[in-house]
Amino acid sequence: MREPIFLDNQSTTPVDPRVLKIVAEIMEKDFGNASSVDHVFGRRAAELVESAREEVSLLVNAEKGRVYFTSGSTEAINIAINHVARNAKRKPAQIVLSPVEHPAVLETCLSLQKQGVAHLSFIKVDSFGRIDFEDLKNLVETGADLVAVMAANNEIGNTYSVEKVAKLCNEFDVPYLCDASQAAGKVNIEFDGWQIDYLVVSGHKIYGPKGSGALVCKRRHLPAGLMHGGAQEQAVRPGTLNVPGIAGLGEACRLRRVEMDVDEPIIADKRDKLQVLLQAGISELKVNGDVGNRLSGSLHISIPGIPSDAVITRICDSLAVSRGASCSSGTEKPSHVLLAMGLSEEEMEGALRIGIGKFNSEADVIAASEILINAVREVRTKMSGVSCKT
Ligand code: PLP
């Protein structure tokens, strides 16, 4: 049986074959422990780690030494938020955040609030998922110890002005955490130039290995780690380094740096084509989010009155898309992003997240549109009580 077409590139991405080759070679030959600098095996592993560090920093335009490897964005986010909140002079620490952040940010902050370590203030967002910058400014002026605004949203694909948020945070000397898990390698990020304090990157969103990621910190910040152990990564993240994963992340970052300017407009064209085909074939289809400012591969739609469950059940053998954010799928809770945007229950129930990546062809997009249009037609026919005998 043919594999379904994969259009869920926000949940994760297939590994680029060039990354896979490097990871496999390192697993086979360069098995040294990067901390074992007394012999060539360890030194070779350490060199691989250092060149990956350079590649991560080049992708986000940061100084090389500011990168700490982690198991992914969730860990990097936990390290940064815990560090800032627990070391803030104000007790509890005031955290200003957007309500459409990923659960890695939201749940970390909520847990600190529960413990009495932090107090949270949420920035207003509109029905397109755009943050109200004036509200953010007022909250920061009132007094904040950390601002968390993501670079791009994992559900609706909105991109946010990291530069503008960073400028405001610098004006008021408030640390800024930017979750760039979805954005790095797809949009330009100037870590040093915009003076971002903390930024996180995830390998598996950029055709790299799962379980790899990094926390990038401004020079004056050396976060305390969450774990105790060795002195790896300056104790920000102790534990034997995942050399193949780190080298894979480095190669994924290098490829994104070199190829994103060419790839992303092509991905956006495919996304636009799919959007046009779906709009032509499905009446009442609504495109969610800030369509003028979204990731090139993102297409988030609602088909009011057509539960996404019913569509997914029909298409899952041929097409992989998502009912909502994959990180929270499995829970039956409505998406916190769509709730914050004030979507109607019908719009939320009929929401589908589609994510196109660099390995999707135009044929994938055309086939996906046909699969989705047919599935919606079938659901509508069934719901109207008319049996379909064609
Ligand atoms: N932040 C965003 C915006 C994400 O999309 C994700 C993953 O879906 C994460 C954080 C968590 O990343 P990781 O899987 O690397 O822990």
As a whole number of angstroms, the C-alpha radius of gyration is: 22 Å
Number of helices: 11
Question: Which percent range fits the helix content?
Answer: 40-55%
Instruction: List the strand order in the largest sheet.
Output: 2-8-7-6-5-3-4
Q: What is the typical, i.e. mean, pLDDT? A: 95
Q: Please, could you describe this protein's structure?
A:
The structure is a single chain. By secondary structure, the chain is α/β, with parallel strands linked by helices. The protein has helices at 17-29, 40-59, 73-87, 103-114, 133-142, 162-171, 243-281, 308-315, 336-340, 345-349, 362-383, and strands spanning 5-6, 67-70, 93-97, 118-122, 146-148, 176-179, 198-202, 213-217, 286-287, 298-302, 319-320, 351-355. It has a 7-stranded mixed beta sheet with strand order 2-8-7-6-5-3-4, with helices on both faces. Strands 9-10-12 form a 3-stranded antiparallel beta sheet. Helix 6 links the parallel strand 5 and strand 6 (176-179). Bound molecules: pyridoxal-5'-phosphate. Pyridoxal-5'-phosphate (PLP) is lined by residues 72-74, 102, 104, 150, 154, 179, 181-182, 202, 213, 327.
From the structure above, extract its key features:
binds pyridoxal-5'-phosphate, 390 residues, 41% helix, 11 helices, alpha/beta, seven-stranded mixed β-sheet, three-stranded antiparallel β-sheet
Short recap of the structure:
By secondary structure, the protein is of the alpha/beta class. It has helices spanning 17-29, 40-59, 73-87, 103-114, 133-142, 162-171, 243-281, 308-315, 336-340, 345-349, 362-383; strands at residues 5-6, 67-70, 93-97, 118-122, 146-148, 176-179, 198-202, 213-217, 286-287, 298-302, 319-320, 351-355.
